Amino acid sequence: MRRLAAPLVSAALVVSGCASVVPTATTAPSPATAPPSATAPPPRTAPSPASAVARANTTHEYQPSTPPTQQANLWASDPTTIIHAFATAYINWNASTVAARMRALAAASIGQARSAMQLAAANTSRDYELRRGGIANSGTVEAIAPLHGAHDRYVVVTQEQTTATNTTAYQGLRPAWHLTIATVQQMRPGAWVLSGWQPET
């Protein structure tokens, strides 16, 4: 996780155009409004190890089970909307909400983005200095643009400022610009989710 941990504030974010809401740090993210036909299919039940071995003994071939497809509980009808929602939540946080917000964003994403948020949640939940210093981060999303040559990757530019209530470590620190590469995936028509989140600066 870049900088300190770039997590998020408790203010709810209403996502325009897709009626989805990025929840506060104490609640799980709410799914965006999706068409009835967009309901996710039930996950496959993986065969038991015993049945897989029995089939391998018969056919002399072993077919590993396919892991169930990850599902995100936050999506939007277009890539920039879901990126803006995720980024706004990710950069606005305080010491008491950061770990819960990271867990919420993990549930709101898939793939590498989910793994990164889960790791961030684990790290910030154990960060005593973060809580003792009363550290917080706030910012705005200034620009989102497609990454040249990659239809599913976007450059996200944010302006952020880190502050603290119980330490002078961040006193006088000016707002700074940051750049992140976000990757999206279309799960079904009209349902884009975040699948990659890579802070660069």
Supply database-style keywords.
single chain; alpha+beta; five-stranded antiparallel beta sheet; 27% helix; 27% strand; globular
Tell me what the structure shows.
By secondary structure, this protein is α+β, with helices and mostly antiparallel strands. Helices cover 27% and strands 27% of the residues. The chain contains 5 helices and 7 strands; from the N terminus they run ββααβαααββββ. It has helices at 49-59, 79-91, 98-107, 111-125, 128-133; strands at 13-15, 20-22, 93-94, 135-146, 153-164, 176-188, 191-199. The strands form 2 sheets. A 5-stranded antiparallel beta sheet has the order 3-4-5-6-7. Strands 1-2 form a two-stranded antiparallel sheet. Helix 3 (98-107) packs antiparallel against helix 4 (111-125). The N and C termini lie close together (11 Å). The model is unreliable at 1-41 (pLDDT under 50).
Brief sketch in words of this structure:
The protein is of the alpha+beta class and 201 residues long. The chain has helices at 49-59, 79-91, 98-107, 111-125, 128-133, and strands at residues 13-15, 20-22, 93-94, 135-146, 153-164, 176-188, 191-199. Residues 1-41 have low confidence and may be disordered.
